[in-house]
Structure formats: C-alpha cells, structure tokens
C-alpha cells in the first residue's frame, strides 16, 4: 500500500528490509488523490517498536493512508528518545480541531490500576469522547479496549488469577461481517494481560456486539456503533518475537511469569515461536480500513460527525 508516513520515521528502513512498501511525504505529494487520514494514539512504552508493528499492518491495502501520531500532554514516555517524540508526535491539544478517517489507540502498561487511578485518565477519556465526533472508525487495542468499553459503556474489568499470556484461538461469531471477510472460522490472537472483560457484561448491553471469542481467553473482539468502534482485547499487531522478548524480560524477575502458551515450537523457547496470527492480522486491518473507514468516511473530511 502507498502508506504515507513522516520522512525519516525509523519504521521506514526497518520495513523496507522486509520488502514492505511505504511512501514518504515527499513522494506522496505527487499523487492527486485524497489519502485517508489516520491517527495513532501510541500508549505503549517502546513506541518505535509499536510504530513499526502498526505500519507493517497498515501497509497491506492499495489505499493511500496519511499517518499521524498523537501523544498525551499529561504523560512523558520514559523509553523513547525525546527527539523522536518531538519529531513525530503531537499533543492532542494541537490536533483537537482536526478530523481523521481512522484512529488506533494502543494498549498501555497500566491495566492493573483502577481506571480512575491512571495518571492520564482525564485526558484520555476526553480523547475517547472527541473521537466519536472527529473520527469515522476507531480501533481500541488491549488496555485501550478495556478502557474504552468502561468509559463509553460502563463495562468493568476484572483481575485474572494468572496472566493471560500466549496465542489463543478465537471464534468469529458473526462470520459474515465485513471485518471478517476472508477469515477462517477460527483465527489466532496473541494475548498479554492481567485483566479481562466478561461475556456476560458485553451481552447485557444492547449497544455492544460480541463478535469474536475464545474458549480459553474469553472476549476477543467487540463492535459498537455499526463498526465506528472496535475493541480488541489482544495484540494482533504483535511481531513474531514480541511475546518471546516479554517472556525473557520477566522470567526470574516476577512470580507470575509462565511460558506463553501455544507459542514456542514444542513448548521450548530455544526452538523459537510458531507464527499463527499474521495472515489474519493483515486481513483484519485491511478489512477495517476498507469497509469501516474508506467505504464509510465522507470525501470531505470536515463532514465527519
């Protein structure tokens, strides 16, 4: 896909080595079409890694996307160079008058805190509310999915006895939905979380539709407002080695660290992971962009409401 991203973003060189096509702003300006304006609110600690993961998936459609990165004014990242944040990210306050065709809000390492105890809760819930009138469709991932369901629909989260960690089969409950076009009946999704939202709470809210679920990991995907909001509890965007790096980082340092399930060959870290989710991850992001963003957004972006 002709993905239009800021010049010199580190993801460009990384993805060119993977034979993935990206387009810098300089080249994109020569094409006489309106690109879809996409914004990412990146809450993950390793922002360059998350940028690369998302750009990799967003690059798999023939539509031209113009990618912007948003940051919180009330939170200073500790694991990303200040120079990188200044070069590629803008505060929400400077973007609040703009409109976007699509938005992605990532997970964050704050899931074990009550929502209201998160330092940037007030600012981020303001962004959640803003997105409803300034974005055609919003994709909430992991903690953001739980936070969005809580803020918009009052769905609580619950602590898990043990970390949900590994690759889990998901069942598409409404396989004819455009978001699942081309999907198999069962698809894999990485999970890495200490809390959950529950089937019963989703089902009792008429505004929500549970569209994917796992017998092991529970709620997988929820849709609302006819596809203007999607809540994904896992990390389809994860690169093959992400869970491996997380496991090796925490093993021996925390009491609750176990091998990620359904991940390593023969359940042996030395043999490396078996990747079972990337095809469906690419398809899901492509379907979302095509059917819920491109097909629904007005040509005049100012008409989004």
TrEMBL record:
Enzyme class: transferase
Catalysis performed (reactions): L-homoserine + acetyl-CoA = O-acetyl-L-homoserine + CoA
Assigned EC number: 2.3.1.31
One cellular component term from this protein's GO annotations in UniProt: cytoplasm
Site feature (Important for substrate specificity) residues: 192
Localization terms from the record: Cytoplasm
Matching SUPFAM superfamilies: Class I glutamine amidotransferase-like (SSF52317)
Database matches in InterPro entries: Class_I_gatase-like, HST_MetA, MetA_family
Molecular function per GO: homoserine O-acetyltransferase activity; homoserine O-succinyltransferase activity
Name of the protein: Homoserine O-acetyltransferase
Upper classification of the organism: Bacteria, Pseudomonadati, Bacteroidota, Bacteroidia, Bacteroidales
Annotated gene: metAA
């Amino acid at each position: 896909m002709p993905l239009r991203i800021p010049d010199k973003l580190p993801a460009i060189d990384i993805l060119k080595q993977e034979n993935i096509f990206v387009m810098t702003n300089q080249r994109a300006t020569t094409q006489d079409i309106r690109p879809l304006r996409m914004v990412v609110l990146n809450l993950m600690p390793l922002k360059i890694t998350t940028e690369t993961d998302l750009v990799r998936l967003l690059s798999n459609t023939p539509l031209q996307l113009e990618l912007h990165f948003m940051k919180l004014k009330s939170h200073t990242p500790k694991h990303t160079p200040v120079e990188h944040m200044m070069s590629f990210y803008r505060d929400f306050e400077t973007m609040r008058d703009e409109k976007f065709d699509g938005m992605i809000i990532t997970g964050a390492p704050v899931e074990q805190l009550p929502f209201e105890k998160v330092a940037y809760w007030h600012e981020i819930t303001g962004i959640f509310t803003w997105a409803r009138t300034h974005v055609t469709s919003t994709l909430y991932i992991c903690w953001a999915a739980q936070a969005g369901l809580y803020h918009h629909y009052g769905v609580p989260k619950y602590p898990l006895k043990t970390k949900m960690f590994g690759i889990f089969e998901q069942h598409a409950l409404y396989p004819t939905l455009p978001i699942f076009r081309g999907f198999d009946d069962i698809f894999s999704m990485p999970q890495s979380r200490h809390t959950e939202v529950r089937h019963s709470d989703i089902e009792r809210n008429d505004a929500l539709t549970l569209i994917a679920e796992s017998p092991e990991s529970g709620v997988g995907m929820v849709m609302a407002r006819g596809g203007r909001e999607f809540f994904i509890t896992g990390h389809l965007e994860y690169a093959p080695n992400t869970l491996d790096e997380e496991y090796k980082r925490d093993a021996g340092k925390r009491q609750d660290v176990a091998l990620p399930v359904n991940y390593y060959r023969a359940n042996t870290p030395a043999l490396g992971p078996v990747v079972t989710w990337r095809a469906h991850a690419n398809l899901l992001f492509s379907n979302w962009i095509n059917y819920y963003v491109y097909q629904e957004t007005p040509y005049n972006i100012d008409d989004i409401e």
